[in-house]
Write a structure and sequence with these properties.
With 245 residues, the protein is α/β, with parallel strands linked by helices. Helix content is 27%, strand content 24%.
Length: 245
């Protein structure tokens, strides 16, 4: 099995190193990741400059671009044959609910999915890498078991509680919850006295009801949400047509 691994935290992040370490004994892996932390870049492609690919000492390919750039270049230039699976992560911190629209971790998987390749994005609930080895083993177990009931390609968003394997409650198939609006921006000053702004953290869970990713992870389960990319609001197409008539 050929697996392409990417992330948005950068090639030095413990999450991608753990994922590569656990998968390399079971698959032919290629790792292509950003040269720095590119979290929150969503599906951005770099179009205003060419991209450089270098090779780290551990064999990882390093791109001075976004997660989407990495997977795009991996699939179109670096890999001789398409992989059987693309995995992204393990991200430092959860990607649940609306996070999935901003996440570079999910975007790397999405890029593969758009190329027709099954893809899974992995994130840990809490930042700090606590229980990272357990999360990597859970990722391996999921990949080994596979998803034979799903048509190919599929796109899965996985969030893993920071718990030991023994303390994980199990697995839940979920839908995305929803968040409140983001926290306010953080106002600050640069050395020249200009007012500057940090984008604030995401809002708390607004819809964490039964069946959501938020609910599953809060109860100690690994949340697995199948995603699709069609943004069309199908129920409103006929109404728009009415207004256009
Ligand atoms: Mn990240």
């Amino acid at each position: 099995m050929k697996i392409l691994i990417s992330n948005d935290d950068g090639y030095l992040a413990p999450g991608i190193v753990a994922l590569a370490n656990v998968l390399q004994a079971h698959a032919e892996i290629t790792v292509v990741a950003p040269d720095s932390n590119r979290s929150g870049t969503s599906n951005a492609l770099t179009l205003d400059r060419p991209l450089a690919v270098s090779r780290a000492d551990n064999g990882f390919y390093v791109v001075n671009g976004t997660p989407t750039d990495c997977v795009h270049i991996a699939l179109t230039a670096i890999m001789k044959e398409p992989p059987d699976l693309v995995v992204s992560g393990i991200n430092q911190g959860q990607n649940m609910g609306d996070d999935t629209l901003y996440s570079g971790t999910v975007a790397a998987a999405t890029e593969a999915y758009l190329f027709g390749i099954p893809a899974i994005a992995f994130s840990q609930e809490e930042k700090g890498w606590d229980q990272l080895d357990a999360a990597a083993n859970i990722a391996l177990a999921m990949i080994q078991r596979g998803f034979p009931s799903l048509p190919s390609p599929f796109l899965l968003n996985v969030n893993i509680p920071n718990r030991s394997e023994a303390a994980i409650a199990g697995f839940r198939a979920t839908r995305l919850g929803k968040r409140h609006a983001s926290e306010p921006v953080v106002k600050t000053q640069d050395p020249a006295g200009r007012v500057m702004y940090w984008i604030g953290p995401p809002g708390g869970a607004k819809d964490a009801s039964a069946g959501t990713d938020f609910d599953a992870v809060a109860q100690g389960y690994v949340s697995v949400t199948p995603l699709q990319i069609d943004l069309s609001h199908h129920q409103q197409i006929a109404r728009v047509a009415l207004d256009l008539a």
